[in-house]
Amino acid sequence: MTGEVVRCGHCGQANRVPAAAAGTPRCGKCHQALPWIADADDTTFGEVAEAARIPVIVDLWAPWCGPCRMVSPALEQLARDLAGKVKLVKVNVDTSPQISQRFGAQAIPTLSPCSRDDQPSAWPGPRPSG
């Protein structure tokens, strides 16, 4: 599985961050935590999301969905703000119907916490901050 290249917010070093790993991603130069944003589908979800050792936020979205595109930057900023503490896993509902069904997604975007021990619980649609 190849990784996404992420630039460290502290030192600017480019780092390859895999979608699935045993620990949490850290900068190879300054060792600061890196944001962990990964894509998953029906076949990779277990490895990418369920095996994570930190809390996971699952974003069920679609490329044609306007509200999904509005929420995405805020979620990515959250992943940057909570680097090393949370993993954002994005699942395209058009290509991953099994995951959509598992989380009971009836509207998108749907956000759901996911951990090894938890059953899925979903929050449909964007929520106001505060």
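Above is the first protein from milestone M3; the second protein from the same milestone is given next.
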Amino acid sequence: MGIHNTRQYENVVRLTAKQNVAFEVLSYHVIAPEDDCQRIAQIGVPEANKLRLYSWEFNDMLLTDDETVLSSVRMFIELDLPRKFRISHDVICRWVLSVKKNYRPVIYHNWRHAFNVAQTMFSMLTVIDFHLFCLRKTKNIRFRPVE
């Protein structure tokens, strides 16, 4: 019984070590490189009106990949999320770059698509006060019991 437990323990230790190595390899490939983060963090974030983020006629094709990242950061700033949640500029830049890095280079569900969806939601939340619209609409909803 003791030999069996020792073998099981050694097996668990070996599998844990393999898991840690796999996690380190995956983390390396998932997280944006430090030099990219520093480069983006040092670039001034353009104003939302200059980027036309509030516009329904927004066109991401006019932006470079770096400008899409900076535009995403600008949306966070416009929503006042860095102050509300005490998120540093460097952390937001690293997070957006990491999200961008994890999108595959496919035709449709790629970084550009995600960026367009984010910009559309940003416009809905800010331009038409969508969250207030939803609250007004849901106040009078009465749910019936499931039959």
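Note on the second protein: Residues 33-139 form one domain.
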